[in-house]
Amino acid sequence: MVIVRPIRANDLAPLLALVRDTGVGLTTLPNNEALLRGRIEASLATFAGTADKADEQWIFVMEDITQARIVGICAIAGAVGLREPWYSYRVGTVVHASRELGIFTRTPTLFLSNDHTGASELCSLFLAPDYRVGRNGALLSKSRLMFMAQFRERFAAKVIAELRGVSDTSGRSPFWESLGRHFFSMDFAEADYLTGIGKKSFVAELMPKHPLYSSFLSKEAQAVIGETHEMTRPARRLLEQEGFRFEGHVDIFDAGPTLESDLVDIDVVRKSTTHTVAGIRDNSAEASADSASAAPLMLISNAHLAGFRVGLGCCKIANDKVVISADIAKAIGVEVGDAVRVVALSPSERA
Amino acid sequence: MFVLRPAELADLPQIESIAARSAIGITSLPPDRDRLADKIANSRYSFASEVDMPGEEAYFFVLENASSGELVGTSGIAAAAGFHDRFYSYRNEIIVHASQELKVSNKIHALHLCHDLTGFSLLTSFYIDPAYVDSDLPDLLSRARLLYVGEQRQRFADKLAAENPGVCDAEGRSPFWDAVGRRFFNMDYPQAEQLSGGRSKTFIAELMPQYPIYVPLLPAAAKLAIGQLHPDGELPFSILMDEGFEADTYVDIFDGGPTVEARVETLRSIRLQRRMTVSTNMPDLAETIECEEALVSIVANTKSQGFRSTIAPVVVGGGAGAGNSGDKVSISRKVARLLNVDDGDAVRVVPLDAGNHRLKGASW
After folding, report:
1. pTM value?
2. Does the beta-carbon distance from A199 to B186 stay under 8 Å?
3. Which pLDDT tens digit goes with each residue over A105-138?
4. What is the ipTM of this complex?
5. Which residues of A touch B213 (CB under 8 A)?
């Protein structure tokens, strides 16, 4: 059984082993021990309430509690762009028209922006390859939404997620080749690494500041603006099901899309409900109940901050009371009388 | 002998045939009878006007073979580029993208759409009959304008500019236009110009990209075309370069050709020209024989409507052997008749070969 919980100091070693699997493009999770240690410390300070708003990092790990193994990681940055500028391109439209000359050209144009300054960001999602089965990916991604639903006052009104843009198997990004390379003679992989170790704004300062007519870019580059890497498409679908939308902002290096939503419009935030645990059934009873009624699989979390836990299970809700099974109760550390937050894992099964 | 003078309405048929012969790119000389007639009428009005400061005047000169009446060239000056509106150019700029942290410093070449040259006086309409390309006449055609400017400073801005044709192939296709303008127009430049009905280029310019263009993003042929001169433009361009015009800063927004500019007072023919009093005591013969003290010069009268300029040998200082009266200049009677001046009238004179102006011992 897997659950998601806040990261702890002693998660560093297993986490390092995990990130060695990370390919180019997961910029917020580089294979760099000092950096990861720093990020864990930042997360501990954030949960302890001692971090500055600008430094808040809520980092979670997915743990297989049966095997006591760290198998995934995900995070929320409390507010981006308050230490260093947060850059993205806004894809706007410039029209050149003359009725007299019969001209009407519509040119997608990239405007360098800091529009998302102060937004909360979903980031650093990574799941061990052998755990990319069943509902693990969905649990890992949506665990953050449950946390935000529970502690919404701690987050910005706007929530964003940057998705990896298109690159080939050798890490070559057509957008970078057509744009970034001219301004910064390095490979995308290197720029991407610099971004991951917190030097993105330095790299960004070398990039063009004036609006860019996309028609000046190569056909291949134009084609990938706002497109998601093949590997990241499932992650994009998950977020879109929760109400996140591509609103025209793309990454300045690989043109991957930034998805965004107002916090209050996130489906989990709108539809999850809190209840008091009225009873705990034994697991065999749940199993038989499941097969009988095909009850939907639920995200179930406790109401603690530093002791936050979220997992998957079934439950029976009656008014403000809920009955959950013994193993999920144990996994997220709740007893009868405690508060839990629940929502169906699949948006289509939510009321 | 040849004389440069303001264009007259009677010149229209000859000017029309010149316009038909001139290359694509001399947009100030449209092959269109009505527009040429307007151009001449506007020029006549401009020369005749009392002007305190430059405005919408446009001065149009023709170069005439005085014995045959044949016109062999044209040139012009627009008093204020983009008057009533804007004059668009691309300005070459270097943007340094640097990061101390990453130990990188990149110089990025960008073209900024600008109106910097708005209000500059503009040298325009240069055309010389190919038969005279290797003569002194191109100098007369181009530089006599500077004698007019020198005499009529109040009519012109303190800065001059001149557009020069950019590179294009035999069909008139410009690699710069194809990489820049075409993306917004989807048509050939001559076609765009034709469609705009010969109105000011501003009409087209407003449809061009307003944001700076990062040169590294352009295809190689377009990069090369930036500031590169069409071979047809080499002659007038070289005359302007010799005068001291600067060619590095501005390029044409359509074909990338170099637009040159300079402060009037820094130009060689402005600095070296002198206003002197005519004495017509040089024998006509001196025009054809070697005269030790004579200096071949561009000479112009000081009139506006009756402006005349020609190339002739002059002797500074009132005649052979005098040499002590710096504000007198001797010319032959024939030249005086051509310039419509007499003894005691003022003329402006600049040595034809400005680089060797000291060779003959004249006090320039």
Report:
1. 0.80
2. no
3. 888 999 999 999 999 999 988 888 889 999 999 9
4. 0.74
5. 213, 216
